[in-house]
């Protein structure tokens, strides 16, 4: 059987948010990249898994940015106001100023980027499953299998691997953000398309961790409604659906509704240290490099920020520069919060409710995105319970890092 061979300056493994973002950043006409300061445009090979069981189900990514963005053509909906329902019944509703909270679906994002990449001679898309990355004399070789079972070898000077890690690095604390959501249509217009409910703590709180509802209106009668938990283990599908029925009927009082679609997922929230280099000229990007914010589970913005940094480094002739997705200060603060939540010292619903009540929404979102300075971080820190956080900060340096066990992937919707 013949081997399909491809050569490129840069090989990107994985067509998720980070892989596509990097391909887009390198291939965009106004972001043309050069290796070693040369004048030739970078050639890029993007290796995406073919249709089948190895391709993940469609996912929803949310992020915030200024009103206009480079991927707005793929944005499903956006909101200028966020709302948080405290467990005590208080409602915190804030305008985001110049920011917009945006929702993008993975299929729409993929179509948009593929459309922009199509026809570019220096970009090649290979539908194949990557199995192994081997070092060569002048770079690396990615060994793959195409959809029809043929072997394929893709050689590049630099490889960026966005595939999920087979296991998490050792950590002091690992929680899971696990959720199930329904795309619903109601009989009556009950949603405000201008307001997203970011956290609704009017759901029963578990003895360990926290739980909340999440509502993203797509129109007066349409919305994505999710039930989310932070805890050590996910639930059964029946438990999620039972919680969603309670939330939609008893809390939101949506009345008669039609469930059009569903999504389900598990996001590790960990203070593990993710190495960004996997070998000579081989680097990890996206969630595999620690782009998921431990305190929130948000990943999309950090992946985009990281891939823009990589593209800029390549243009400057620094192919070994892969920026850290988050600052050390942000990681240290998140490690304290995770440990305090996991030990039960911190009431999660009270913590987040207080955070939103005492901090302007725009500043808080910049904080959650790692774009605030030290003074702003200190002001936000004084808005949360001090004793459990201080006690946890003092004990963290003495805690060992242990391997974290991940649950099996959730069943499809």
Largest sheet: 7 strands, mixed
The level 1 CATH classification of the domain at 4-57 and 106-168 and 272-315 is: Alpha Beta
* Helix and strand pattern: EHEEEEEEHEEEEEEEEHEEEHHHHHHE
The low-confidence runs, each spanning 5 or more residues with pLDDT under 50, are 30-39, 409-413
Rg of Cα set: 22 Å
How many helices? The count is 9
Output the CATH topology of the domain at 4-57 and 106-168 and 272-315: FAD/NAD(P)-binding domain
Strand order of the largest sheet: 6-5-13-14-15-12-16
- Total beta strand runs: 19
The secondary structure category is alpha+beta
First and last CA, distance: 38 Å
Protein name: Lycopene cyclase family protein
Organism: Streptomyces achmelvichensis
Notable characteristics:
disordered C terminus; five-stranded mixed beta barrel; 19 strands; seven-stranded mixed β-sheet; 413 residues; Lycopene cyclase family protein; FAD/NAD(P)-binding domain; alpha+beta
Written overview of the protein:
- This is Lycopene cyclase family protein.
- The chain has 413 residues and is an alpha+beta fold.
- Among the domains are: 4-57 and 106-168 and 272-315, FAD/NAD(P)-binding domain, CATH 3.50.50; 328-404, no CATH class.
- 26% of the residues lie in helices and 34% in strands.
- The protein has helices at 17-27, 106-117, 237-251, 300-315, 328-343, 348-358, 361-368, 374-381, 386-395; strands at residues 4-13, 44-48, 60-66, 75-79, 81-85, 91-95, 99-105, 123-136, 139-146, 151-161, 168-171, 174-186, 195-200, 210-217, 222-231, 257-270, 277-279, 282-284, 402-404.
- The strands form 4 sheets. A 7-stranded mixed β-sheet has the order 6-5-13-14-15-12-16, sandwiched between helices.
- Helix 1 packs parallel to helix 4 (300-315) and helix 5 (328-343) crosses helix 9 (386-395).
